[in-house]
Design a protein that fits this description.
This protein is α+β, with helices and mostly antiparallel strands. It has a domain of about 120 residues: Beta Polymerase, domain 2. Helix content is about 50%, strand content about 10%. Strands 3-4-5-2-1-8-9 form a 7-stranded mixed β-sheet. Strands 6-7 form a two-stranded antiparallel sheet. It has a two-stranded parallel ribbon with strand order 10-11. Strand 10, helix 5 and strand 11 form a beta-alpha-beta unit. The longest helix is centred in the last third of the chain and has 19 residues. The relative contact order is 0.06.
Length: about 350
């Protein structure tokens, strides 16, 4: 069975980066033959299998032909006659279209090795035009590899696709996947900047303003948490933030932090002297049940104060520590229902007053 290491594993190895996942392509074999050898099929749209022992992914070499709009509008040919070169031809960028043999030799029909050396992101073939998701992947790699530039001819193809309104073919879930991966890179601002330069920004997330992108850029240097970076991106949202997040199909944990920060961040950034106001915010943020989110928002406030060149906010972690030191077993057990809750609240508020 002819097998070749392909894609990101080869690219990252050449760049001296950790190889987290290894993907293989199988040439000159059939699905039935792999199943008989103990491979487990996992791909719904494409013939992808898990190795019986290593559990690494093995895919039959395949060709694709565009037959309909959308990311999934392709007809796949994974017959035994498909060559390695034909499989590599369908890939998005030259740096992702390099194969490596078991003996360690590189097969590079599209000059990806030279583009890695010259730090260039370049499309493999005009088939780049057939899949609008490749625009977002291009931007994500631009964010991940900060010393890479984009070939002018690739920028031209991306602009053509955007002008043809091909981005409307993408499902919101696919857009979010690429966006979330970009938020985890060291330079996420490059993802948004490139898309903005290409004219994609207004089509993808018009509610996100240029000032918010600038905040996220600075925030990325202060925290690695993608939820906080995303909250910074939403800080000056120009439209209904909830509606924007819903249209993007953003996961709940991102939505939660983004909405809470937009509503309460200004208070967290201030230094309220009134214990009642402090306690009310702790209640509104549900900090007793969800202290981890409260700590995240406080971390965001610390970072934002640095960005806005303000004095550091009050020590909200200290405030929370004070009120949570008062527990329910310190309340008269004879009290029931709302009276018990009111008594616990008053004891916690008293503790905060005394500490301040």
């Amino acid at each position: 069975m002819e097998t070749y290491l392909v894609g990101g594993a080869v690219r990252d190895e050449l760049l001296g980066l950790p190889v987290l996942d290894r993907d293989w392509v199988v040439v000159g074999n059939t699905e039935q033959a792999l199943l008989e050898q103990g491979y487990e099929r996992v791909g719904k749209d494409f013939p992808v299998f898990l190795h019986p022992t290593s559990k690494e992914e093995y895919a039959l070499a395949r060709k694709e032909r565009k037959i309909a709009s959308g990311h999934r509008g392709f007809e796949c040919d994974a017959s035994i006659t498909v060559t390695l070169e034909e499989d590599l031809l369908r890939r998005d960028l030259t740096i992702n279209a390099i194969a490596k043999t078991i003996s360690g030799n590189y097969i590079d029909p599209h000059h990806g090795l030279a583009d890695i050396e010259q730090r260039i992101l370049r499309h493999v073939s005009p088939a780049f035009l057939e899949d609008p998701l490749r625009i977002l992947r291009l931007a994500r790699f631009y964010a991940r590899f900060a010393d890479f530039s984009v070939a002018p001819e690739t920028l031209k193809l991306a602009r053509q696709m955007i002008d043809e309104d091909q981005l409307t073919e993408l499902a919101a879930e696919r857009i979010w996947i690429e966006m979330s991966k970009a938020l985890e890179t060291e330079h996420p601002e490059r993802f948004f900047r490139l898309l903005n330069e290409l004219g994609a920004h207004a089509r993808l997330w018009p509610a996100i303003s240029a000032s918010s992108m600038d905040i996220m850029n600075k925030l990325a240097k202060l925290t690695a948490k993608s939820e906080l970076r995303f909250a910074g991106l939403c800080y000056h949202a120009t439209d209904s933030l909830a509606r924007c997040l819903k249209s993007l199909k953003v996961p709940n944990r991102y939505v939660d932090v983004a909405l809470a920060s937009q509503k309460h961040l200004d208070t967290l950034l201030s230094d309220p002297q009134d214990p009642e106001k402090i306690f009310v915010l702790i209640e509104q943020l549900d900090a007793f049940r969800r202290p981890e989110r409260f700590h995240d928002l406080y971390e965001l406030a610390l970072a934002m104060s640095s960005i806005f060149q303000q004095s550091p906010p009050a020590d909200w972690d200290y405030y929370l520590k004070i009120v949570t030191s008062v527990t329910s077993d310190q309340v008269d057990p004879e009290l029931k229902g709302p009276k018990f809750g009111a008594a616990l609240r008053e004891k916690r508020l008293t503790a905060l007053r005394e500490a301040l």
